[in-house]
Each structure stands twice: as C-alpha cells, then as structure tokens.
Design a protein that fits this description.
The structure holds three protein chains of three kinds. Chain A contains 20 helices and 24 strands. In chain A, the strands form six sheets. In chain A, strands 6-9-10-3-11-12 form a six-stranded mixed β-sheet. In chain A, helix 6 packs across helix 7 and helix 10 crosses helix 19. The C terminus of chain A is likely disordered. By secondary structure, chain B is an all-alpha fold. Chain B has a domain of about 220 residues. Chain B is globular, with a radius of gyration of 22 Å. The two termini of chain B are about 20 Å apart. Chain C has a two-stranded antiparallel ribbon. A two-stranded antiparallel sheet of chain C has the order 2-3. Chain C is about 70% helix and about 5% strand. Chain C has a single domain, classed as ABC transporter involved in vitamin B12 uptake, BtuC (Orthogonal Bundle), CATH 1.10.3470. Chain C is mainly α. Classes of the chains: A alpha/beta, B mainly alpha, C mainly alpha. At the B-C interface, helix 6 and helix 13 of B face helix 7 and helix 14 of C.
C-alpha cells in the first residue's frame, strides 16, 4: 500500500491576493483509500487551497498560483470546477446545492442524466434526448446503498430531513465511476450527532473502495474517529502533517491556534472583576442563518473590553446581531439593570447600545450616499440628533451643517481618507469604510459598543488603526466594548476577558493570558468539566 | 397542536385552490341569472376551447423554466398576425394559407422570442413586468411596421388590405376562405353544436408534445433552472440559454395560437386583435388553478372553460342583476385583471410565508 | 474628451438620444412651417399638466418600492375628488381646491391599503402595482355606473345609467391654474404661470419633505433597508408613507391635468396613465431605485417635448401621423431599458 504513488499531490502551493500572501509553500499528499483531515482556524487558507484544487475562477482572476497540483502523477491545472469534476475530484459543500422540487434521483444525476436517443434528437440536437428514469433510479440507488444509508431515490429533497440532504449531496458526488478524490467541507455541521456518526461510517466505506477523501471539519473528535492522517494549516502554512495515531487532540488544538502569547502586551493589566455589571445576557438564542445562537449567558462589566471568539459558523456573530434586534431572538438582555426588548432595532439604540456590523457593505453602510449621512444617520434616527425643530417642533428639519461638522470631526479624528464628506461611501477603501462604520457608532455615544469583526477584509495598516481607535475610545470615554472577532490574536491583544463560542453556546471565558492550548480546546468543542463550571459561575 | 395543523392544511388548500373554487361559485350564481340554455353554453365553450387553448398553452413552458407568466407572448401573437397579413396579401386561401402563415410567422417569432429572452435574462427577478412592458414596446414597433412600412418598403399588392392612402394595412382584414378552415376541416356536428375536430386534434398533439417535452433533457433542465438557477448553474446547465429557449418556444407557440384564434374569429383587427391576448390567456390559466410557478395541462382546460363561461354569461347576468349589460362587460374585464393581481399577490405572499416557515423550523430546539 | 465621456456615462445614451432628438425637432420646426413659439407653449403646458404626476414617482422609487405602476390608484382618488366637487356644484378655485380636499382622504386611504399590500410582497412590487392599478381601474368602471351621482353635467342624459365617459369642466374649474397670472406674448405664446407655480409648490413640498427626519429615513430605506433597520427605522412604515405620498401626488396630479385639459376622463381613462409618468422620470435620469426632483423636471420636459413636437413636426414633414407610434416606442422602450439595468447591488 505505502509503495504506491500518491493519488493527489500538492507541491509548494503559494498564493497571493493583491500582495497579501495567503498560502506559503503548502505541500502534502493524499493516498488511495485514505481519509485526510484538514484543520485550521478561519483564514488559515483552507478555502483558498480548495479553490485552487477546483480551478475556481477567483484564483485565475487574481493572478493564479505557484506550485503544482498532481493527480495520479500528472500535473493538472483546472480552469473550472467542471474540469476538476471531469478529472474525478468532487466536493461536498457546507451549503446544499440541491433542487428542492426534484427527487433524490434527479438531484444525484443533475445534468448527468441517462439519456435516450429519439427521432427528434437528430434534428434538434442532444438536448431533445429523453430521460431514462429507471436507469437513473438504479444508479442513484446504487450510490445511496454505497453510503449505507436508507433513503428512497424517489423522495423529494424538499421533504427530506437535513441529514438526508447531506447524504444526497454526497451520493451525487460518488455516483460517477471516475470519482477519485472527494473533498468534504464541514459536512457534519448541520447533522445531529447520530447522523454525523452514520456519515463517518459511510466515509470509511467509501475510502475502502479506493477513493481518497479530504475531510475538513472543526470537530477534532471526528477527525480522530475517522482520519488516517491530519494536516494542520496555520497562516497559510502547513505547520504539521501527522498520522492520527501519533498525536493527541490537545496537541492539534494548540498547533491550530498557534503562537503562544509572547511579545503581546495584554490589555488586561488594570482589569478589575469587581466593577459593576453593565450588560447582562441571559439564555439568549438568536436565529441568524449560519450563526445560530442556542443558549448564551454572560455578564459584561463597566469599562471593560469583552471579547467573543470562536470558529466561523458557531454563533459568535449571532450574539450582537440578536441583541441589537437584527435577527429573531429570545432570552433576556439587561443594560444598567433595565430590560432591553429584543427584535426591535430601535430599542437597544435608545437604551444606549451601538453596533458596528461585520457585514460592512450589507448592513454597515449606505454605499450610494455621502459620508456625512453614513456617519450621522443612526444618531439622527435613534436619538433625534442633528435636527432643527421647525414650526414648534411639528417638523424635524435635517440640520445639514451639523451633520457636515460631525462628519468632518470624525474624518479628522479617525483619519478617514476621502476627498470630502460628500463622497459616496462606496468609493472608499475597506479600511476607511470600516472607520466610517466606527464613526457612525461613536456618533451615537453609546454606553456599550458592539464591534463585530472590525478588521475583516482590511489591510494590516488599517487594522492597527482601527484597533487603536477602539482602544483609545474605551480608555478616554470609558465606553464598554464588546468585540467579536475570528482572530484570536486580535482579541488577546485588546480584550480584558475572552469568551469562546462553540455550537451556539459559550464554551468558556478565559483571560487573554491563558494558553493557546486552552483557547484551542474550547474552540473545537472539547469542554472539560472545569470549564463548564467556569462558564456557569460567571 | 392537531387543531393548528388542521388549520395549516386548510389554509394551504385555500392558498393553492382559492381561485378556481371562487370561480366555480361565481359561475354557479351567474349561469342561472344569464338564462342561457345549456346547449348554447356548451356550444360557446367548445368553440372557445378550440379558439383559445393553444394560446394558453404557450404560457406553460416559461412557467416551467421559472420565468413566471410570459406576458411577452403577445410578441408571438404579433408575429402570427404579420404572417396572416402577408398570406392574405399573397392571396393564399384555406388551411394551406394558415400553414403558410405559420411558416412565415415562425422565423419572426423565433427572432422576437430570442430578443425577449435576452432582455429577460437582463431583468432576472422581474421577468413578468419586463415582459409586459416589452409587449407594449414591441406593439409600437409592430404598428410602425404595419402602419407605415407595409406598402412602402414591404410591397403589399392586395389593395383590399391597404389603407386608401396607399400604404399601411387596414383596420380590419377579412380572412375569407381561411375563416374556420381548420375548425371545419373535419366537419362534425353534435346536437347542432359545431365541433372543431381538427383544431382539437392539433391541440391534442400539442398536449402530447408538452408532455413529451417534460421528459426530455431540455425540459428537465428547464425545471431545474426554474427551481434554482444557482444550483443549475453549478451543475453545469447553461441557465441563460435554457431560459432563452423557453421564451422562444413560448413565442412560437403563441404565434401558432394566434393564427388558430384568428381563423376561428374570421377577421383580423390589425391593431387590436393582440391587445388583450396575454391578459386573457394569463387570466384563463390562473383561473384554472395555475400559479406563477406551477401550471399543468389540466389547468389550461379548466381555466379556459371557467374563464370563458364567465366571459359569456357576465354581460347578460349583469343586465339581469343591474339592468345594464355594460356592467357585466366591465365586470369580466375587472375579473381578468383582478384574478391576475390576486394570483401574483398570493404567489408573492406564499413565497414570503415559505421563507418564514423554513426559518422557523431552524429555530427548533433553541427555546430550552 | 474624458469629460465628455463621463458626461455621457452619467446621462446615459437613451437620454442623450432623446435630448438630441428633441433639439433637432425644434431646429427642424421652422423649416416645415411649425411655429416654435406655439410649440414652446404646448411643451410648457404639457409639462405643467404632467409634472405633478411625475413627481409622484419619486417617493416610492426612493424607498425601494420601484416604479409606481400603480399610479392609477392615485388617479382614481383624484377622479373621485373631481366628481364629488362637481356633484356639490363647486366652481372656480373653490371647485379645484375642493376637489383636492375631497380627493385627499381617498388617496390617503387607498395609498395606505396599497402600501400595506406592497409590504407583504417585497420583491414583486412593480408587477403587483401594475395589476393593482389595472384591476382598480376596471373595478371603478363598474362603480362609475353604480355610484349615486346626480349632477346633470355628469350623468348620461337619456336613459343611460351612470356617469359619462368624459365630463366637461367648462362651467367648473377649467384652466383655473393655467390662466392664473398667465403671460401672453403675441398670438401664439402663453405661459401658464399659475400651473407652473403650483408645480413649483408641489416640488418644493417634496423637496422639503426629503429634508425632514422621515424623508431622510425614507431615502436610507431605499438605499439600504438593512442599514436603515439597524438604525432603528421601521422599513415597513417608511414604505407605507412613501406609497401614500405617491398616491396623493397622483390624485393631485390628475386634477392639475384635468383643469388644463378641460375634461374629466372616467372609465378606461386612467388605464395607461402610469406609463408616461414612469417613462418621464426614467428619461430624466432616474433609475429603478433612485430618483430626485431634477430627474422629474428634466424627464417631463424631454418626454412631453417629444410628444408635442413629433406630431407637429414629423407630420408636417412626411404627412403621416407617427406620434402615437413614437410615444409608445419612446416611453415603453425607456421603461424596458431601465428594467434591464441591474441597479441594486446583488447580494
């Protein structure tokens, strides 16, 4: 077995996006019949690597990549996912790519149907061929049976439970006889525990037929259950490639999260746990697609910077969005010991909270409007600032001059690069747009400020400017800040305490000085009893 | 809990079938009021089944492809009318003339359908309103062609159809020997009612075609595209091309449908015959229980029968009820537009509801 | 060179073509014996007649409800106001403003219901608006026959039932705005000062409204509803207000139109009134989700200019009446063009 040439080999893969290096010299290989676990934090480069493997257009549009991808010994360079598919590389995505009104059979053979010739075909071409449903059904059934699950090929996808959809998706990839390599991206994220177990068994069966599988998940337990080897990516580099039997879960977690805290000035020097609680969240649930919050409770003390971290999709983003009323939510939120109603965006604003959304372009900005509007609007609507009452208050007239003055103040204070305050927000760079979002929240002068992914998608220089702005705002005005970020290092550099969210719940709250291993274990869903106790205590 | 699900299923049935049920009730009231004999009504409905079904069928395929109600089918109707005008000009007669008109209309309909498909691909998500306005726009072009170019640039020799000023087509063209040439090709009378056998045969063939088409790769792709463009695209189906083909087929069928319609009527109102084509076809289909996203062959027949029964009885019913036939005529126009408005509203509403429902199922176990 | 290109990009080809067409029509007018001053008067009058209707497009476009193809709903409110005013025998300025006063409650009520409906069908507003317009017009066709009006000016004289299709305003408030402070120069030039002033007033009210807190919120709702919601603005409420405003402007707009036209047109009259107004604001540079008062003014001038000039100039030049065809092609072509521009960022 070990003598054979590798099925898939990645040699020295390096990729830059606009001068930003996201992958550096990535090498590993995959053998036939092997399941390879690929783990890493968000932004470690997993998705870029998969985009390269599948020839996604985003790669060639941004200047291609260096290095080589070899499939069965020959170098390949796919121009589109269809090329990859034809060569025998399939992928099961996190999101379903199924047609709801079609049966399992029709979805499994979508655009790969078994066709019959007829008279019309000769004249009007192959698209007038008729479908051979019995043959298609047989193929689909075969494929489903191979997975070892019990799904009728005639069930409509719309009527399937989530788990069955995932299996249908999987069956679609494996029905092709040429299938050699299968990539699964977080396939168990939507499954119940027992469904996940069935899936893992299916993967093992598939691997035994000689298919090579790359398995991406954040649940390390699953990796240890099913994988032969583990490749750990961090900051675009392979930090370790190791056989599952030669390592332990805490080791992998530590490698994933990485750098231990050296040279970082922990911000928590003068943090005092005895200060009064300003914000209390009890049993919060939030229905935010992809970031579901199930049951979260925590307290934030006055004047602190409270961090919320965790891997993507675990629900950390749902927390601020739920509290600010942007997604359906339940539970209790108390600010200054007063209940804040949920599901009404105006209420938390009026109570003295503000939010810088992670979705800058979607929620954070009026892209087509001028800067001054962007900065002033929330304060104007929520607090009646920048209004001149006319006719004895009957008409609230917009005070354009006050708005401009405000905008100019923040342009200066935050060093926003723009032609003038009339410039539409869409013309600014990402970093400057983020500063506009901060200015908008600052203009509300909140008691508690939620900042969600403040440095996502902006360059390094702008990152430190944004973090500095937050830090000084916290220090100078005494504003309590709740910062949500995927980048643990960022949280550790600025926060007084950091909560880690996993599967919609808080896995634990740690000081920024805690070790990388401790953070890593919380992120991958291995709550020990002590940590549970800490969580409940808080 | 059971009460709730019962109410849910009841409301689901209502949302799905509200329109046909309402119409059955409406007609049940209107027929006795109109005092028409059963014989007369049956005759009228049979005539209209032959006359209008083909046009309604032209709407099915774009619905399958997820493009909604193709109000742009009037483009096909206009192509058919141009075919009829030219055939009349060339002095062709009878069923042969009809087929030549179809042959002349086909390339024109393909061209117009292709253009409409491209326009609608640029207006994804608002195909219906775009196709509606496109119909108005092409109507302007049609008038330009028929009123100013025909007789000037396109030679028209038959003075009977040219306006007295020497160019432009007259308001009404008598189809003479083409009149009902298809309907009466195979003569059959039952109880004094003329049965358009040949027309029904053509319609039956069309049904067969549509049924078969659903089983082809292209038809299958259309259903996939109609349900989820993104998934279809990811599976390698050429989404835009498929949508264009759907519109082309619809336009060509509408062209034939309009020719069949006109041969039954017997005169072409050059500038008005196509005015209400789309409205009436769409209204009939919706009354038959179709929705913006789902339509079947039975919907067509049920719809044509219900819609045209209402159409026939409402003026006299109006006269009996309100003392004015005009009221009945306004009423049936109101019903045509109203049912379209209602269907689109129900459909949009259903989509919003479904979105909410699928989200609430996500919420599931959180309230612990 | 680059500045010309940016100018073209900014204005868009259809507008430039239409502007050039209009300009060439005016230049060609004297050559074919059409009086320019007469044409100017006609253009100005038609601008005044249609201007308020076009202004009515702005609020709904601004809140993201799209082009108001449901304008006939507002027109119906206006018609109710007009007929009631005549029924009560109001004449002169009192008749006109009485009609506005009587129309307003209907407009607000209809607009409110229409707004609630549109809030439930987000994403499909334009199609539904079109058919809400069509079906309400055809519904009113029945009502005009059934409503218990008595004024002999309006009711069919001999044995018929219901209202006439056209009602002359001769003895009521014909030209009440047109003739107010009208300036006449020579035989052929007349400036309808009152009507233009009234338009200016309506435009000012619109402008002022968009400078209030609510108006600002409405613009933000159209620009990015998620942003507005996150700022504590009720998106549905803003949309409803915008629909009510559009409907009210539609009602007042039709009354301005009628006083100049001299007749109230009932029954099928309002059927296709939305399309010219929609086309005008698009020609003026608006898109499906962005419009302002300048767009309305420029668009109305250009579109009504074309409509005035084509019959007179082209008919004199080639002796045939192309005006109807030109109207259809210009207005509907413009709307199709606008609908195919994807203006909203795809998310």
């Amino acid at each position: 077995m070990s003598e054979q040439e590798p099925l898939l080999e990645l040699k020295g893969i390096t990729k830059e996006y606009y001068g930003n290096r996201v992958l550096t010299d990535v090498c590993f290989n995959l053998r036939r019949g092997e399941i390879l676990g690929l783990v890493g934090e968000n932004g470690a480069g997993k998705s870029t690597l998969m985009n390269i493997l599948f020839g996604m257009s985003v790669i060639s549009e941004t200047g291609g990549y260096n290095g080589e991808v070899c499939l069965e010994g020959t170098t390949v360079n796919f121009q589109s996912p269809f090329d990859a598919l034809a060569a025998g590389i399939g992928m099961v995505h996190q999101e379903f790519s199924l047609i709801p009104g079609f049966t399992a059979t029709e979805n499994i053979l979508l655009n790969g149907e078994v066709l019959h010739d007829n008279i019309v075909t000769k004249v009007f071409g192959p698209r007038m061929k008729t479908l051979d449903f019995p043959a298609m059904r047989a193929i689909a059934k075969n494929s489903i049976d191979l997975l070892g699950v019990n799904i009728s090929p005639d069930t409509l996808v719309a009527e399937m439970p989530v788990g069955h959809k995932q299996f249908t998706e999987l069956a679609r990839e494996i029905h092709r006889p040429e299938m050699k390599v299968l990539v699964l991206d977080e396939p168990t994220a939507v499954l119940t525990e027992s469904e996940a177990q069935v899936l893992l068994t299916s993967l093992r069966r598939l691997a035994d037929t000689g298919i090579g599988i790359i398995f991406i998940t954040h649940r390390l337990q699953e990796i240890f259950d099913v994988c032969n080897r583990i490749v750990i990516l961090r900051d675009g580099k392979v930090v370790r490639e190791v056989a599952t039997t030669d390592t332990t879960m805490p080791q992998v977690a530590e490698l994933m999260v990485g750098r231990d805290l050296s040279g970082h000035a922990a911000a928590s020097t003068e943090y005092d746990a005895a200060t009064e609680t300003i914000l209390a969240v009890e049993h919060l649930w939030v229905d935010m697609p992809g970031e579901t919050v199930r049951d979260v409770s925590f307290d934030v003390h006055k004047g602190e910077v409270f961090g919320i971290g965790g891997l993507a999709g675990q629900g950390k983003l749902g927390i601020p969005n739920g509290i600010m009323g942007l997604y359906a939510a339940g539970g209790k939120v108390r600010l200054h010991d007063k209940d804040v109603p949920l599901n009404e965006p105006a209420a938390p604003l009026a109570a003295g909270m503000a939010f810088v959304s992670e979705d800058r372009r979607g929620v954070g900005l009026l892209l087509e409007e001028a800067l001054d509007w962007n900065i002033a609007f929330t304060a104007m609507q929520a607090q009646n600032k920048f209004m001149r009452p006319l006719l004895g208050g009957l008409i609230k007239w917009r005070d354009d001059r006050a708005i401009r003055d405000l905008a100019q103040k923040y342009v200066k204070a935050l060093d926003i690069k723009c032609t003038d305050t009339n410039q539409p927000a869409q013309e600014l760079s990402g970093g400057n747009q983020q500063k506009v979002c901060l200015a908008k929240a600052f203009a509300v002068e909140p008691d508690v400020l939620f900042v969600s992914e403040p440095t996502r998608g902006i360059d390094v220089g702008a990152k430190s400017l944004v973090l500095d702005a937050l830090r000084s705002y916290n220090r100078d005005k005494g504003t309590t800040i709740v910062m949500i970020s995927s980048e643990l290092e960022e949280l550790r550099s600025i926060c007084d305490r950091i909560a880690i969210v996993d599967e919609g719940r808080i896995a634990g709250i740690l000081p920024p000085t805690a070790s990388a291993k401790d953070f890593g274990l919380l992120m991958i869903g291995r709550r020990t009893h002590e940590q549970e106790a800490v969580n409940n205590h808080d | 809990m059971t009460r709730k699900t019962f109410r849910q299923s009841l409301s689901r049935f209502w949302v799905g079938n509200a329109v046909p049920v309402m119409f059955v009730v409406l007609i049940a009231f209107a027929i006795p009021l109109s005092r028409f004999s059963a014989n007369y009504l049956v005759g009228e409905v049979i005539t209209r089944l032959g006359r209008d079904s083909f046009l309604v069928f032209s709407l099915l395929i774009p619905i399958m492809a997820g493009m909604g109600l193709n109000f742009g089918m009037v483009l096909g109707a206009m192509a058919g009318q141009i075919g009829i005008i030219l055939v009349t000009n060339w002095g062709m007669t009878g069923v042969g003339g009809l087929f030549v008109a179809m042959a002349v209309g086909t390339p024109l309909a393909i061209l117009l359908g292709w253009a409409a498909g491209i326009v609608m691909n640029h207006a994804k998500g608002r195909e219906m309103v775009t196709s509606l306005i496109l119909g108005y726009f092409i109507n302007g072009v049609y008038q330009l062609v028929v009123l100013y170019i025909m007789g000037k640039i396109i030679p028209i020799s038959n003075s009977a159809i040219v306006l007295s000023r020497g160019y432009g087509i007259r308001n009404a063209i008598d189809l003479k020997t083409m009149r009902q040439s298809l309907d009466r090709l195979i003569p059959l009378k039952i109880d004094g009612i003329q049965i358009p056998v040949a027309t029904f045969v053509v319609i039956a063939l069309l049904c067969l075609f549509i049924w078969w088409f659903g089983k082809t790769k292209l038809g299958h792709d259309m259903r996939a595209v109609g349900q989820d463009m993104k998934v279809a695209e990811e599976a390698g189906i050429k989404v835009e091309r498929t949508r264009i083909i759907a519109i082309i087929i619809s336009t060509v069928l509408a062209c034939y449908g309009q020719i069949i319609f006109l041969q039954n009527i017997g005169t072409l109102n050059t500038y008005n015959s196509h005015d209400q084509t789309a409205t009436f076809a769409v209204a009939a289909l919706l009354i038959g229980g179709a929705s913006v996203a789902r339509a079947s062959i039975p919907n067509v027949f049920i719809g044509v029968i219900l819609f045209h029964t209402m159409f026939v009885v409402s003026p006299t019913a109006g006269k009996q009820l309100m003392g004015s036939a005009m009221i009945g005529e306004y009423f049936r126009v109101f019903v045509s537009y109203g049912v379209i408005a209602l269907s689109i509203v129900l459909y949009a509403w259903k989509r919003v509801k479904e979105r909410e429902q699928s989200r609430s199922s996500l919420r599931g176990d959180q309230d612990l | 060179m680059t500045s010309i290109r940016t100018l073209i990009d900014k204005a868009g080809w259809p507008r430039i073509i239409i502007a050039l067409l209009l300009l060439s029509l005016f230049l060609a007018a004297p050559a074919v014996g059409v009086r320019v001053d007469q044409s100017l008067t006609d253009t100005i009058v038609r601008f005044g007649m249609n201007g308020v209707l076009v202004l009515g497009m702005i609020p709904m476009v601004q809140t993201g409800c799209g082009l108001n193809f449901g304008l006939p709903l507002g027109i119906i409110a206006g018609l109710l106001g007009a007929t009631l005013s005549i029924e009560f025998g109001l004449t002169g300025a009192g008749g006109f403003f009485g009609a506005i006063g009587l129309a307003l409650p209907f407009a607000v009520l209809l607009g409110w219901g229409y707004g609630l409906l549109l809030n439930r069908v987000k994403g499909d507003e334009m199609m539904i608006a079109t058919y809400v317009g069509f079906s309400s017009v055809s519904f009113m066709c029945m009502m005009w026959m059934l409503l218990p009006y008595h004024s002999p000016t309006m009711v069919w004289g001999y044995g018929g039932t219901g209202l006439r299709t056209t009602i002359s305003l001769e003895r009521f408030w014909v030209h009440i705005l047109d003739d107010f402070l009208a300036i006449r120069i020579g035989q052929n030039f007349m400036f309808p000062t009152g009507m233009i002033l009234f338009f200016a007033l309506m435009a000012f009210v619109m402008w002022a409204f968009f400078h209030t807190k609510t108006g600002t919120a409405m613009t933000a709702v159209g620009s990015n509803p998620e942003y507005a919601r996150a700022s504590g603005v009720s998106v549905d409420r803003m949309r409803t207000i915008s629909v009510i405003m559009s409907t009210v402007y539609g009602a007042i707009g039709i009354l301005v139109y009628q006083q100049s036209f001299g007749f109230v047109q009932l029954y099928n009259g309002p059927f296709f009134m939305a399309l010219p107004a929609v086309a005008a604001i698009l020609i003026g540079g608006a898109s499906v989700n962005k419009a302002n008062i300048t767009n309305a003014i420029i668009g109305t001038v250009l579109f009504q200019g074309i409509l005035t000039m084509t019959p007179s100039v082209i008919n004199s030049a080639i002796q045939s009446d192309l005006s109807e065809v030109v109207r259809i092609i210009v207005s509907d072509g413009m709307i199709v063009y606008a609908l195919t521009r994807s203006t909203r960022k795809s998310r």
